[in-house]
User: Fold these one by one.
Assistant:
Number 1:
Amino acid sequence: MDIKLELQNLIEKNKSQFIFANLTNEVVKLANNLLHDQVKTERMFITEGLWSYPYIKQNNIKVNAIIINPESVKSELGLELIKFYLNKTKFYVISDKVLNKLTNRNDENGIYIIGELPNYNFNEIFKKDKCIICVLDGVEKSGNIGTILRSCDATQIDGLVIVNRRAKLTNTTAVKGSMGAIFSVPTITYNSCEQLMCELKNNGFSIYLADTRADKDYFNYKYDKKVALVMGSERYGISSPWLGDKPNFIKLKMLGQCDSLNVGVATSIFLYDIKMKQLGE
């Protein structure tokens, strides 16, 4: 298959769906702002390259626009993406010069998907008879959020909640670091710990706070059917509203000189333990 020729034919036959765009185009400017985390909207994201396409398609994520550099479309998967989204969204065709303004890597990275994460109904999620929620309280590093999303997907927990947000969920580092999990794990951002605590308690959740000062190690808990695991920020830990009302503190036993693990690693261990115990394994 001559991929370059087939792409040329696709563009020629579907001219109305392909817009040739330069750096002044509003969608190209939006892409540049998203790549540099300069867009305030919480749910909009951008991905670079083909890695995200199978996950976006599988989870039926809304796609607002696709930007392509024809020289970067070198595989059948790239052609498949274009054919799948024909008549579903607009395509913006950019030159090598424009691509080089967006990225330093050409190869197959000259394909950008701009989309939006769904707005999930957490009221329904909270009402489940058996439920695990992971709460990130002030986590600052986007890479850690991406890692935690992967663990949430791996353990099939019910949702990820961000409160006291210091890093945007749809930051490109978090999106790429999640390796597609951001498209499968329900997510929401809360402005208030107190509001979130109230909703969790009203829905029968037992709340567990990860803290190095805890008296009990995580494996000493059996856990209830409805569990909220709260992980604090890398520098400051868990914020004060969570500390009242005799919370359940849990920790990892540290056998070496370090007093804690990276928040992404620690969250993975906790989530696997909670999930396996709920499954009776």
Note: The mean pLDDT is 90.
Number 2:
Amino acid sequence: MDALRKNETLDDLGGGRKIIQARNEFRFSLDAILLANFVRLRDKCRDHIADLGTGTGILPLLLADRIKSAVAIELRENQAEMAVRSVRLNGLADRIRIVAGDYCRREVLNAAGREAFDAVIANPPYFGDGTGAANRESGVNDARHETTATIGDVAGAAAYLLKYGGRFSLIHVTGRLVEVIGALTAANLQPKRLRLVTARPGKAPALFLLEAKKGARPGLEMMPELVVHGDGYGGYSREVAAYYTGRYEGSGGAAGKE
């Protein structure tokens, strides 16, 4: 494998998969795990997917066994380069392609493939530029704040890449739910599935998972609330614990299939 660089770590994703991350850059969190298990994909690995703002490639790596191919776009060159090495390390270069560039630019989207994807995913910045607590590390700050792309930019890029009838899935903070839905519908992406995420029963949801479909008619399914923490493995609820162990027998709406 490529040697790790200074300030890098090699982290285990389970199932023999690993990811390279930098100690002083944005590192993936539980949010990526929740999104990967929310995404609805067809059986038999038929789907071509795109990931907007992939970081070091966490979502394509988590979904690799459920897809035919992925194109993952990342603006920050050092993050994109780590993603390339992680893809090679896991023997997935024939299935996952990393594109270093700005998905707000049409030439970058065209390089990925206009209207070429069955599904697009994104874990976009949660806070508007100038809001929320800033982080002194620019990579972390860009991942948390809309310094390079707004939610409207994310929705527009997803719509540009999706086939008609394709699905866009994202995770975001509940305080911006109305704004996110407005951005999606403006881009001809109709919200179809919504799942609120709470830390514990009785607590107000802080996050939501949302799937929108390109060109669809209105009609939103409210899914059961997802509780993160409980008495399962690692202090997680049984459902979230199963995202790590693969042993969940409930009906709360884990990763969808068709």
Note: The helical segments are 30-38, 58-63, 77-89, 106-112, 138-144, 151-161, 177-186, 238-245.
Number 3:
Amino acid sequence: MKSGASPIVQGWCPGAYRPMMSGDGLVVRVRPFRATLTQSQVCTLCDLARRFGNATLDLTSRANLQIRGVAEDDHPALLHALTVNGLVEDDPQLEGHRNILVAADWRQGDLTDRLYDKLLKALPKLPPLPEKMGYALDTGTRAQLTSGSADFRFELNTDGRLILRADGAAKGRHVNEDTAMTALTEMVTWFIETGGIEAGRMSRHLRSTPLPENWQETSARPPASPLEPGPFADGMILGVPFGNVSAKDLAAVAQISGASEIRLMLGRLLWLRGAAPQKPTGFVTVPGSPLLRTHACPGAPLCPQATVETRPLATRLAGQVTGTLHVSGCAKGCALPRRADITLTGREGRFDLVRNGAPWDEPAKSGFSPEDLQDLSGFS
């Protein structure tokens, strides 16, 4: 990025059919169906990351996986392999809009599972939306997706009834399984007809355009406490620092742990169902690690938008902030596109410091070099 230039916001996220060019090659995103991968699929993805990418995988803030460093000439072969292994949709348009957050504790035939099937069938029939927009099926035993990036949210209210809530609205409307997709179509249509496409996201649109009152009938149940690494249900949860893991380490944990499947969760967590407790290399295995409160994008030179290295600094500063720390290569804030207690934003080779804000907010102080940032205790 040129000195003084603003970062380029693409308006879309990388996908399997529509990858995004970065400093180390193409970024190819895989959206696991129901946020779940079998042991065989995990090993296949790891093998593909070694064959076609830089031998690492990124776990995104939307609980997707990305293969980085793919050469343009290799993309068709990678896409074919992803398709034949059931990791992406055959329909490029459907795959590009399949941004669905799923309650991690879904079970075959339960409400979340049934809604997922209905939503997949409804997506091709919905009016076209910006590709960054997405959906949440927060209908598990506890509300775990409140902080996730989604625009149309199927949730449960305090009485356990199904509701549809527009992201950014305090309340939602009552629906049932039979009316859920009709209500979603109505909300999407309203969003488009009231100029939401220009805003790009539902919460941003609602800042200037009021939602119909009859769509604000009831409150969703309160969010549950975030999950942490450690033993969990019939397996264990692992944390992935900065969402980056080597293909070798992920394949090893999938095979050695005995997990029947791996479910991808918000907070850059992996739930290994059926796994025996262990402490594998490259993962956080105990609660309370400051690395999971610290967010950092790949930074320079891997991202052409960034002018600073990010993860070495984030690793060094992890634990110095009581709450969340975000080290962002530029003002886009891809690793954490929302507020953090302390945000360090790269600009022209140095860092701006934002308190209780996002990378694009007004900084409290500017012009720090990495060497200047030895101790953050005085800034939090």
Note: The first helix runs from residue 39 to 52.
